[in-house]
Amino acid sequence: xxxxxxxxxxxxxxxxxxxxxxxxxxxxxxxxxxxxxxxxxxxxxxxxxxxxxxxxxxxxxxxxxxxxxxxxxxxxxxxxxxxxxxxxxxxxxxxxxxxxxxxxxxxxxxxxxxxxxxxxxxxxxxxxxxxxxxxxxxxxxxxxxxxxxxxxxxxxxxxxxxxxxxxxxxxxxxxxxxxxxxxxxxxxxxxxxxxxxxxxxxxxxxxxxxxxxxxxxxxxxxxxxxxxxxxxxxxxx
Length: 237
Ligand code: GLU
Hints:
Layout: E1 3-8, H1 13-23, E2 31-37, E3 42-48, H2 51-58, E4 67-73, E5 88-89, E6 95-103, H3 106-115, H4 128-136, H5 141-151, E7 154-162, E8 169-174, E9 179-182, E10 187-190, E11 202-205, E12 211-214, E13 219-222, E14 228-229, E15 234-235
Antiparallel strand pairs: 1-4, 1-10, 2-3, 2-4, 5-6, 6-7, 7-8, 8-12, 9-10, 9-11, 11-15, 12-13, 13-14
Helix pairs in contact: 3-4, 4-5
Bound molecules: glutamic acid.
């Protein structure tokens, strides 16, 4: 269980992602990575070791996109390595996910996905999640995420990106912390408030089972059943 960040707005996402991950460094980690929507594709870079190793890899090739996610990993399934670092994607590269926690039933899900032709490149429990999304996606990103959440068991903070839905991040949590920071024309996701406190003091602190659909001008919260929730903003003084 380590760090997660996400950004949707008008600014270069990589700046907040790296700054936010730096603020979460105190939680400890063995690798780090980011994904940023770049129009034609979702750019992914990751590196085992310190955040500096990731920053070095990004030197002179930082993505320009304004929607992205970032992750620091504390390995539970699969050794610390570049390929086991998050974000993880599906076979097509259309879905990208970061995850803190453990997907308890990943073995059975992975075997089933492999029998359906999915190719796995990491040893993580997490990688089943983007492949599941690819499997169930019928054009409605939110419905696909709900379907995936109904299939996985365990503890998680998860953030989902979809190439077909470049202006949206969807996040969900179960037994792991996740907050959404509310800005003006930009919104933030983080596993802990220190990552976003310099940007905003207005947050939604997600409860287990809640799903947030985050765009630059709106944040909507839903139950796992898909019902809209009227959630109170928590203001941190
Ligand atoms: N279980 C996942 C992995 O081993 C996530 C670990 C974490 O919480 O950082 O990649």
